[in-house]
Design a protein that fits this description.
alpha+beta, 298 residues, 6-stranded mixed β-sheet, GHMP_kinase_N_dom, binds L-homoserine, globular
């Protein structure tokens, strides 16, 4: 019995929702092959595309599945193959794709003892290993699709939000690596009341705009005065990229997850292509290799 799956990339934070908001891309992601074995052993049997640990205690997919099997009290063995297309340290949920993909496939092969929402908690164990913090803003949308909002971590409660039809995401991935662990370490732990007010106003407005298909409001809500001003220092040409995307008609622009990827949210395919071309045109003159993606949110 085996299952081949697509494990999607995700964009977390979306500027106004640090650690609570994320969305799922529909054409960027890894492939995984998971099959039952008769050895009562969990094994990572093959990894392509990236140098990652094969040891299950050191691999995010291994750790996530172990926590699921432990909860179930099951000693069923599995072999997991991971074919990475998303680079580690890219900011589009590489570790989340592996963690979420692995628990999703194992759960299916076990005849679905857990709901997709319950699987998030196991996938978060992979995130704990990857970044030192079990944040769910990548694994939740990877498992639920569309937009997810983590209402609270304790008790854990996550909501699915609607995804307006015309939304498109353009992602620029400058090929430098920023580890989530490092880009979390530089964030200040305290927030002023003035900034907190601005942030929850924007997050509330963003959620409202998803329900009302208000594209302009979506764009105006993609702001962050708390985390992005600090993290953007690590991203080459960040301010220029923001200008280039907005001049080409993007609704909003920001850091994807913990960077170095940046995202431009766009309305409609035509505008997204224009934004993508403008970014490519600007970045090709810089000294950094890059990848560009254009995706629906699904
Ligand atoms: N919310 C997490 C962070 C996402 O920004 O650190 C990491 O992809």
């Amino acid at each position: 019995e085996e299952l081949r799956i697509f494990a999607p990339a995700t964009v977390a934070n979306l500027s106004c929702g640090f650690d609570v908001l994320g969305c799922c891309l529909d054409n960027v992601g890894d492939e995984m092959l998971v099959r039952k074995n008769n050895l009562n052993q969990l094994r990572i049997t093959r990894i392509t595309g990236e140098e990652l640990p094969m040891d299950i205690d050191k691999n995010v997919a291994g750790v996530a599945v172990l926590s699921l099997l432990k909860r179930l009290g099951s000693d069923q063995g599995f072999d997991i193959e991971i074919h990475k297309k998303i680079k580690s340290g890219s900011g589009i949920g590489s570790s989340a794709a592996s963690s979420a993909g692995a628990v999703f496939a194992v759960n299916k092969l076990l005849d679905e003892p857990f709901s997709p929402k319950e699987l998030i908690l196991f996938a978060m164990e992979g995130e704990r290993l990857a970044s030192g913090n079990p944040h769910a803003d990548n694994v939740a949308p990877a498992l639920l699709g569309g937009f997810s909002l983590v209402k609270s971590y304790e008790p854990f409660e996550v909501l699915s939000l609607p995804s307006p039809e015309e939304l498109r995401m353009v992602i620029l991935h400058p090929l430098i690596e920023i580890r989530t662990k490092d880009s979390r370490a530089i964030i200040k732990q305290n927030v002023s009341l003035v900034k907190a007010i601005a942030q929850w106003g924007n997050l509330g407005a963003f959620v409202s705009a998803l329900y009302t298909n208000d594209y302009d409001l979506l764009g105006r809500s993609l702001k962050d005065e708390i985390v992005e001003p600090i993290r953007s220092i690590l991203i080459p040409y960040y301010d220029r990229l923001d200008e280039v995307a907005m001049e080409a008609g993007a609704l909003g622009f920001g850091i994807s997850g913990s960077g170095p990827s940046v995202y431009a949210l766009c309305r409609g395919e035509e505008n997204a292509v224009k934004v993508k071309d403008a970014i490519a045109d600007f970045y090709k003159d810089q000294d950094i290799d890059f990848q560009l993606h254009l995706s629906k949110i699904n």
